[in-house]
Amino acid sequence: MLTISHVRKTFNKGTINEKKALQGINLHLKPGDFVTVIGGNGAGKSTMLNMIAGVYPIDSGKIEIDGVNISREPEHKRAQYIGRVFQDPMRGTAAGMQIQENLALALRRGQKRGLSWHIKNEEMDFYREALTRLDLGLQTRMTSKVGLLSGGQRQALTLLMATLERPKLLLLDEHTAALDPKTARKVLELTDEIVNEQNLTTLMVTHNMKDAIQYGNRLIMMHEGRVIYDVEGEEKKNLQVEDLLKKFEEHSGEEFANDRMMLAK
Question: How far is CA 245 from CA 48, 185, 233, 241, 250, in A?
Fold first, then answer.
């Protein structure tokens, strides 16, 4: 479903601030893979997701989704393949628009838009049913402006919007990091439910090692722009946080030094 071949990205090339973010990264996801991604600061986790989404152009290599080469496609054209949820709950929704209008935008992603703006009655029923599963009472507030919602409500809505039209690939970039623990747990459980129900091919970057082990069928560890550890199936299920720390030291030759991830053990 997703193939990344020899992708490289260097920021500020030729300057004192040069940063080699991705160094010939290779990764292949099968249809339905739910892959959690961990690594220290500057490992290239978010950069990899941004390269896939088309936020920045790659320097070299190739990115394919479902056999289609999207390496040089602009971000807006990749939107027809990709659903995305960001770390900041404010980024995935339009604050000045109603909940139902946000959902309508998501449903029409990748389609040609005319001059008229109209939400049909059957659409309203579909949105109401979709919101009900969030269990946040939003199905009774469909005409409310999204800017009035809490961060957790907005992030749950963003997740729903990203998966409303089943994407070929779902990108989750630390999408619970800005939420309180209780809300983060709810959003993660909802994520797991939707991903498994729709059998979505998913990449989830997280700073929480326990979550990385608990969710998904596969885990990859990144360091200095490369994948240094890749585990799946029963071996992944049997992992402990200490095992991940040991693997990091084995493959990188240094101790793990990400304070946020250490605190999240």
Answer: 22, 23, 19, 6, 9
Q: What is the largest CA-CA distance in the chain?
A: 60
pTM of the model: 0.89
Domain count, the chain: 1
For 40, the domain range is: 2-81+167-263
Residue type, 118: H
pLDDT in tens, 11-67: 998 899 989 999 999 999 999 999 999 998 889 999 999 999 999 899 999 999 999
pLDDT of 220 over the 90 cut: yes
User: Lowest mean pLDDT: which of 80-89, 114-123, 226-235, 253-262?
Assistant: 253-262
Residue 93 belongs to a domain: no
What's CA 114's distance to the chain center, in Å?
30
- Residues 142-162 have a mean pLDDT of 91
Binned at pLDDT 50, 70 and 90, residue 192 comes out as very high
Structure tokens that stand for 41 in this block: 């600061």
Residue 44 identity (one-letter amino acid): G
3-state secondary structure of 252: helix
C-alpha to C-alpha distance for 127 and 59, rounded to whole angstroms: 41
Residue 21 near residue 39 (C-beta atoms within 8 A): no
Q: What is the CATH number of the domain that holds 30?
A: 3.40.50.300
The answer to whether residue 39 sits within a structural domain is: yes
Q: In angstroms, rounded to a whole number, what is the distance separating the alpha carbons of residues 38 and 35? A: 10
List, as one string, the DSSP characters of 119-159. --HHHHHHHHHHHHTTTSSGGG-TTSBGGGS-HHHHHHHHH
Q: What are phi and psi of 160, to 5 degrees?
A: -65, -45
Within a domain: residue 142?
A: no
pLDDT at 222: 93
